[in-house]
Design a protein that fits this description.
Order of helices and strands: HHHHHHHHHHHHHHHHEEEEE
Largest sheet: 5 strands, antiparallel
Shape: elongated
Oligomer: single chain
Structural class: alpha+beta
Length: about 375
Amino acid sequence: MRSLALFCVVFSIMACLPERAFGQNTQTSECSSGFIKSEPSIGKKFQSLQDWVSFAKALDVNKSYSENLSDPAHYKAINAFIESNANLPLFQSINGLAYYYQCFGNDKNRTKALELFELAENSGDPIAIQVLSVQPEYQNDKNWKKSKIAQLKKNKSQDISQSLRLSFEADKNFEKIQELTKTGFIPFWEIEKRDKKLKRWLEPYCNLHSKAYGLWKQNFHALSGLSVCNHLRQGYNNVHLAYSLVVGMGHIGHPKPQNVVDQMAIKLGNTDAIEEAYRNSYEFVGLRTPITLDENYQRHIQRILEISQLNRQRNTQKANTYKQPPTTHINSKGILGHLSHEQENDFSKICYYEFLEELKALNVKSVEICPLTHKFDH
């Protein structure tokens, strides 16, 4: 079995599915697959996909592709059509989606879904490859991804295949980007040098993901990659778009952790900006924006207001701390330093503490709050 890297951050190129992820509603069995919720791009020569889209739209000519596929009245006909094409890789993948995302009245069955995806990916089906690429068994297997790039490259006329291939190609740069943006202290004289290196790796990474997204809006690798590009000031530096892309991933079944999305929303400054970016998130993944936003959004806003209030309280406490002379308390666990100031830089934050007439630094993630005090070894 292939191992899973246990990190789920907003800038992780693979979309993890934690127990409490933004956009997940454990009380509903609604199908969240982007392939089902939004009509996919067919491309020039993807006959199986053309047959599937034509069938879905013909179920009721007065309704859209997604409306027909989400109507329980059509589930029997849909499942029968999938079964009648069970020998075709795309339909094996669609059947896998049905069990993986609980579509067309099917219960969730990950084991059966993966069996179907693995059957389809042997023939180079892009839908199967995309879902398998974020599974623990495949997520960090570079040899597997390399072989899939070669398979996808052969499907030159399929927009979905080429979109996924471009994202896989882009991901080759991500380890270097992650290394250059990891949490840790960087002397100010090294920051400019680091930024130049980062731009050199970001440019091809962002360009490839942009092309991938242009071919297929439900490519969650491209969505995640572009969220990185728009969040970093060395990239496109558009936090509104970065937030919309991350929220959009939740709409199509690959949500980011709640705390990550909440912290991104806070950076937008006010609830009007958050609502505008949230509404835009539907369009970015090819979905129709609802007139009334769902319960996930309402809970999201409530958490943001609570976090903002907590931040104000902490800022008040810090202001009071600045007015007091520094003191130290020596005990067996170390010497207590008091927060002096902080410096934020992309993914990391440096907290500085007054400690025995000098400054000590503590490195934390950019989304974390500097503790008012911290004990250091003398």
